Amino acid sequence: MKIANPVGDILRRSFAIAGLGLLTAEAPFAAESESGTGSGEEAKIKEFSNWMGGSTDYSNWFEIGVGGAVVDGDKSQFQKRQGIPSGASGGVANFHWEKFVGDNGLLKIDGRGIFDNRDYSIKLDLTDTEKGFIRAGFRRSRSWYDGSGGFFPQTGAWFSLYDDGLSIDRGEAWIEGGLTLPERPILTFKYSHQFRDGTKDSTIWGDSLQGGFGMRGISPSFRNIDETRDIFQADLKHAFGTTDWGVGMRYESYNQDNSLNMRPRPEESIERFLTQNEDGDSDLFNVHAFTQTPITEKMLFTSGYSFTTLDTDFSGSRIFGADYDAFYDPSFRDRGFRELEGGSKMNQYVLNLNLMATPWESLSLVPSLRVERQNLDSVSHFENTPGGILTDALSDRDFVDVSQRLEARYTGITNWVFYARGDWLEGEGTLYERRGSSPVPRFVDNFDFQRDTDDSRFTQKYTGGANWYPLRGLNLGAQYYHKIRKNDYEHELDTNPNDGSSFLRFPAFFTDHDFETDDINLRVTWRPFNTLTLISRYDFQWSTVDTRGDGLAGIQSSDLTTHILSESITWSPLSRLYFQGTLNYVLDETDTPADDFAGQLIPDSQNDYWTASLAAGYALDNKTDIEVQYVYYRADNYVDNSAFSQPYGAGAEEHAITVGLNRRIRENIRWSCKYGYFDYIDETSGGNNDFSAHLVYSSVQWRF
Asked: What ranges make up the beta strands (E) of 46-131?
């Protein structure tokens, strides 16, 4: 669980709202406007500037900022949790320039460039209200990861096999335009090139022999990521009489050249490296259409249709060698594969029909119908290593789902709003699977594994709720839903023995797999005074999973219980001063029968945690304000069962405090300075991922 990120907000927001944007307080200088055409942040700037006596007539601005973090401990974990580099960074935090063009046109340019944070963007927008628009831009950002592996308490084993400060860059370049001539069809188009490139951690860890405790998966691994996607979109909208209609298309071309890399048993003198290459490309084509027709003043009909086809080709290998990306060497006897190749083709058809009726002013009804059909054909071929056995596999999946929904909303009682919704889904499908192995390449008719499965599913979900406004400053809300999903499987053909001797029986031995969930949430918002607001919420969810195996009695295979309590208090005792506090407490447990016979080998899963924050802001004068924020996070779910298995579960504690000072030097020049301190303790890593850090950031904004 990741805590709220005050430092990330500091580096990503412009100075004028650096302190204010972290809060939802309703202090005079932090209230967010609900009207106007500007963004929420711009509304905050205007509100703050007006309160301090400044002018808001400036439509352009330029802001530069610089900062840095000094980290004691695991720099990679700091970067991952806070989303910023551990060293210095700075540059253009925010730039905006606009100019009127002709009688109805407006040209806008926005950009930012934070060096060493790898955060760059630029956007150009030329809009003419009578003709259309054209926009283009580029953005690039970086996400950090910690590539460390697992910690084994019994021996203190912790492997550092490479620099675990990993990162991935994400970006997009796009151009879009549209014709919006009056009384003419509206035509829009967009081309986008997206990419993801870099290295990140993986939770698929390599094994390690830990003396008398046996094998443990704690050796770190990483993934090399190289992915690109090109997207073309075009849409046409118009109106014939009282009917609005539209058609469109979307084409996507995707390519990946990824790999999983690990070093199994790094304690051994003979080094072994594993590289699992995962290459592939796909082409997606979609056409869609919609209509919207008012039948009467109290009845509206809408419809939509979509067809999608997806062609995918993939290839890869899983090879052990003396280094990463090694050629296949049969002297390494670990099981893997090579020369994997295959592909799949998917066709999807979706139809939506909706009707909104308001027979009375206080009652609205919305029945809807959705029908989906999908077919997926897949085929693959690979060589097992060592041994050179060739394996072919193919499958054919086909299903039809019919969904219905009925929504109702009633406002006929003063200060009350009631709503209810029912969702139903019925579906049927088939799955055809074949696998064959032989010393002869390519697909053979003599399959050693065959399975034909018919499946059906039925889902029901019933939701009801009400909102009550008994007083001007008080409103209460409650919602409950009950959901049931039943999955039935019938294996008409299965050549695997039903005696547990073959791992291929999983999951084919399932004949029933049912889920049931009850969820309730309660909300109270109370404003006893103009200066005090309290928001409380409680969520409870209970789910059960029932499973029946082929020829076996049914059992309750899982029981999940979640409680979430949250509270927020905002107090502005003075026009210059505000306080805000929040508390969130989560109790989450998954109980399975496995702990009854496996004991400490497979304990119940716990995901309990709580977060708390406290913020305060004070305007020292009409040009200067100060803000302080503290955030605390604690998860205590780590169970040391290392004598029986590799221990998992979150066990961490984190403190974060920031102090910010904002100063209006002149009417159009503002200066900001921030200091942050962070402390993180991680039990699951044996302290190897602990860190403490200091951060300083300052920026100057000039509006013109």
From this structure: 61-73, 88-101, 105-115, 119-128
Task: State the Cα–Cα distance between residues 474 and 472, nearest whole angstrom.
Answer: 6
pLDDT band at 273 (very low <50, low <70, confident <90, very high): very high
For residue 355, CA distances in Å to 171, 301, 303 come to 40, 5, 9
Question: How far is CA 311 from each of CA 284, 429, 594, rounded to the nearest angstrom?
Answer: 7, 21, 40
Helices vs. strands in the chain: H and E counts, helices first = 4, 29
The per-residue pLDDT for range 77-131, each reduced to its tens digit, is 999 999 999 999 999 999 999 999 998 999 999 999 999 889 999 999 999 999 9
- Give the ranges where 6-161 is alpha helix by DSSP (H): 6-12, 40-51, 75-82
CB-CB contact of 49 with 65 (8 Å): no
Maximum alpha-carbon separation in the chain:
86
Helix, strand, or coil (residue 445): coil
Instruction: Provide the residue type at 314 as one letter.
Output: F
Distance, in Å, from the CA atom of 409 to the CA atom of 367, rounded to the nearest integer, reads 12
Q: What percent of the chain has pLDDT over 90?
A: 77
Half-sphere exposure of residue 677, counting CA atoms within 13 Å on the CB side? 5
Computed over its alpha carbons, how large is the radius of gyration of the chain?
A: 30
- What's the CA dihedral at 332, 333, 337, 338 to 10 degrees? 30
Q: What DSSP designation does 31 have?
A: P
pLDDT tens digit sequence for 464-492:
999 999 999 999 999 999 999 999 999 88
pTM (predicted TM-score): 0.86
User: In this structure, are residues 32 and 110 in contact, taking their beta carbons and an 8 Å threshold?
Assistant: no
Amino acid 449: pLDDT: 83
Question: Across-strand partners of 360?
Answer: 363
Number of other CB atoms surrounding residue 54 within 10 Å: 21
Spatial distance between the Cα atoms of 111 and 123, rounded to a whole number of angstroms: 6
Do residues 299 and 314 touch, judged by C-beta distance below 8 A?
Answer: no
Q: DSSP letters of 191-249?
A: EEEEEEEEEEE-S-PEEEE-GGG-EEEEE-EEEEEEEEEEEEEEEEEEEETTEEEEEEE
Q: Summarize pLDDT for 303-354 with one digit per residue, the tens.
A: 999 999 999 999 999 999 999 999 999 988 899 999 999 999 999 999 999 9
* Strand-pair partners of 466: 418, 478
Q: How far is CA 299 from CA 271, 366, 418, in A?
A: 72, 10, 20
d(CA 195, CA 227): 6
Sole residue written with tokens 């009400």: 466
Strands (DSSP E) contained in 297-444 are 299-321, 336-360, 363-385, 390-410, 416-438
The alpha helices in 52-172, defined as continuous H runs, are 75-82
Q: Which residues are CB-contacts of 227 (< 8 A; sequence separation ≥ 6)?
A: 195, 196, 197, 254, 255, 256, 257, 258
Phi, psi dihedral angles at 50 (to 5 degrees):
-65, -40
Taking a C-beta distance cutoff of 8 angstroms, is the pair 257, 265 a contact? no
Identity of the amino acid at 409: R
Q: Supply the pLDDT for residue 29.
A: 32
Cα dihedral 156/162/164/166 (nearest 10): -160
Kindly indicate the confidence band of residue 600, based on its pLDDT and cuts at 50, 70 and 90: confident
Determine the 3-state secondary structure of 63 from DSSP.
strand
What is d(CA 442, CA 432) in angstroms, rounded to the nearest whole number? 19
- Locate 141 and state its tokens: 């950002």
Q: Which residues of 624-634 are buried (b: 16+ CB within 10 A; e: fewer)?
A: ebbbebbbbbb
